[in-house]
């Protein structure tokens, strides 16, 4: 944070303090969770204030790993999130480029049609989707977990907007350089849209990782649980007043991959959330 | 290298027609400049030749081949864009190689062509940089280099100097002219800057509102403008135009009476059968200061440029007049001066804007 300068206007200084206060509101529960996850359950039964003093233990984490299929769930989450992200990037890039640059009859109408999808909540289509996946026998498969989230109007919209903003002259120069439309897409437009793709990748990955409702319906066998469903399933097996350290260890486990991802892609996440589209 | 033949080109964007029946022949190895104000259709014409826009009507030939149905990459054309359009994610070398790679040129030939282009343009040390690491002038060179490596039949330039500062623009002008001589290629250059057109072109195509006003070598366009538009557009400061009230004949030559009653003799033949001029035009340097001169003007602003003096004045009816005086002219603001336009330089313009030229001096 910047050093406070007594000459600075009151409003500016106030906003510093406000930011500090808000970040404390945000961070204290997180540190609380982290602290609790290292405490033995017996000691926590005396009161939650014990979090500030020894002893600390790794038992909650080892219990978690021993008593559940945690490794499998993490793997499932990783597989689903990565494949979903990659496929969404491919589909949205191609569709976005098509809407941005190709002339075809009904383009505007089709684009509006895609955007209408933004207004339809996932929950609204969950029953027909479930029925369809039962018919196709796709529940409890990776395909079943991934497929419903591949058509993302937001991604198409984001990529189309980004491609539209690329200077048309670059593609014209490439056309004069004997590049086909496909080649222009692959060698010029796609590499230049990396910032938008990172934005979309972050949103998609977060969405896939944190998704709860669809995996809850589609993955009914424990070996096909994603991390969110798996952790939720273990909670029902413990008395939570005693198992609070264990519960917190689960929360840390669920959040850790996101935290690591955030630290790596911090710059792009900030840009994505700020709505700048990473330009 | 090849000649470019544009036949009856028309282009409309929806209901807006931007080019009207444009026909121009550009000879093999010629440096043609498409010149005109913003929105006159010159860039559209260039893009039609490049294949970046589709023709509404007409045909384009390069050499003996009709090319207007071909894809841009198959026309044997290279284009330097106003924004240079270098691929920002590729190194300079990759930028130069891109077009050649796309047609399957062997790597050793690509390397050789890049070296040649880099030597000609003195960009050898820039080959491994990315475009954002280059200055405007360097990007310009790379853009030209990208065109050269393809050894095209025709080079197209779309206002490539407009993003450069004045000094660099002047230098690059000279360099492009040199390059033209060195390569002997047919080049078509779009600009709204008449200095670029006058200094670089072997042929100027003056365009206005989607039509070709005049085609010719620079000096011919300057000395014998076909229309009032060309006369006004070419030359800095602009040509003076004085409205004619009445015309008469004086010994076979046209004599014009101005609004203030002053009479100007011309060497425009009355026997030629053309319409009467409604205006007379003369350039600021084609006039002599003469107390007995027919044009009586009042001086408003004096610009002393060192090598010459530009005087901005007006006639009694308010018609603005600019004339050029020698460098140590003593003329002052508010002075009343008599001017005598050179007899053989006075050009008439009829109601439609067509120029009526004087007979050449004997």
From TrEMBL, chain A:
<keyword id="KW-0472">Membrane</keyword>
<protein>
    <recommendedName>
        <fullName>sn-glycerol-3-phosphate transport system permease protein UgpE</fullName>
    </recommendedName>
</protein>
<keyword id="KW-0813">Transport</keyword>
<feature type="transmembrane region" description="Helical">
    <location>
        <begin position="109"/>
        <end position="133"/>
    </location>
</feature>
<feature type="transmembrane region" description="Helical">
    <location>
        <begin position="145"/>
        <end position="163"/>
    </location>
</feature>
<keyword id="KW-0997">Cell inner membrane</keyword>
<feature type="domain" description="ABC transmembrane type-1">
    <location>
        <begin position="74"/>
        <end position="265"/>
    </location>
</feature>
<feature type="transmembrane region" description="Helical">
    <location>
        <begin position="244"/>
        <end position="265"/>
    </location>
</feature>
<dbReference type="Pfam" id="PF00528">
    <property type="entry name" value="BPD_transp_1"/>
</dbReference>
<dbReference type="InterPro" id="IPR035906">
    <property type="entry name" value="MetI-like_sf"/>
</dbReference>
<dbReference type="InterPro" id="IPR000515">
    <property type="entry name" value="MetI-like"/>
</dbReference>
<feature type="transmembrane region" description="Helical">
    <location>
        <begin position="184"/>
        <end position="206"/>
    </location>
</feature>
<comment type="subunit">
    <text>The complex is composed of two ATP-binding proteins (UgpC), two transmembrane proteins (UgpA and UgpE) and a solute-binding protein (UgpB).</text>
</comment>
<comment type="function">
    <text>Part of the ABC transporter complex UgpBAEC involved in sn-glycerol-3-phosphate (G3P) import. Probably responsible for the translocation of the substrate across the membrane.</text>
</comment>
<keyword id="KW-1003">Cell membrane</keyword>
<keyword id="KW-0812">Transmembrane</keyword>
<comment type="similarity">
    <text>Belongs to the binding-protein-dependent transport system permease family.</text>
</comment>
<feature type="transmembrane region" description="Helical">
    <location>
        <begin position="16"/>
        <end position="38"/>
    </location>
</feature>
<keyword id="KW-1133">Transmembrane helix</keyword>
<feature type="transmembrane region" description="Helical">
    <location>
        <begin position="73"/>
        <end position="97"/>
    </location>
</feature>
UniProtKB/TrEMBL annotation, chain B:
<dbReference type="GO" id="GO:0005524">
    <property type="term" value="F:ATP binding"/>
</dbReference>
<protein>
    <submittedName>
        <fullName>ABC transporter ATP-binding protein</fullName>
    </submittedName>
</protein>
<keyword id="KW-0067">ATP-binding</keyword>
<dbReference type="InterPro" id="IPR008995">
    <property type="entry name" value="Mo/tungstate-bd_C_term_dom"/>
</dbReference>
<dbReference type="InterPro" id="IPR015855">
    <property type="entry name" value="ABC_transpr_MalK-like"/>
</dbReference>
<dbReference type="Pfam" id="PF00005">
    <property type="entry name" value="ABC_tran"/>
</dbReference>
<feature type="domain" description="ABC transporter">
    <location>
        <begin position="4"/>
        <end position="234"/>
    </location>
</feature>
<dbReference type="InterPro" id="IPR047641">
    <property type="entry name" value="ABC_transpr_MalK/UgpC-like"/>
</dbReference>
<keyword id="KW-0813">Transport</keyword>
<dbReference type="InterPro" id="IPR013611">
    <property type="entry name" value="Transp-assoc_OB_typ2"/>
</dbReference>
<comment type="similarity">
    <text>Belongs to the ABC transporter superfamily.</text>
</comment>
<dbReference type="InterPro" id="IPR017871">
    <property type="entry name" value="ABC_transporter-like_CS"/>
</dbReference>
<dbReference type="InterPro" id="IPR003439">
    <property type="entry name" value="ABC_transporter-like_ATP-bd"/>
</dbReference>
<keyword id="KW-0547">Nucleotide-binding</keyword>
<dbReference type="Pfam" id="PF08402">
    <property type="entry name" value="TOBE_2"/>
</dbReference>
<dbReference type="InterPro" id="IPR003593">
    <property type="entry name" value="AAA+_ATPase"/>
</dbReference>
<dbReference type="InterPro" id="IPR012340">
    <property type="entry name" value="NA-bd_OB-fold"/>
</dbReference>
<dbReference type="InterPro" id="IPR027417">
    <property type="entry name" value="P-loop_NTPase"/>
</dbReference>
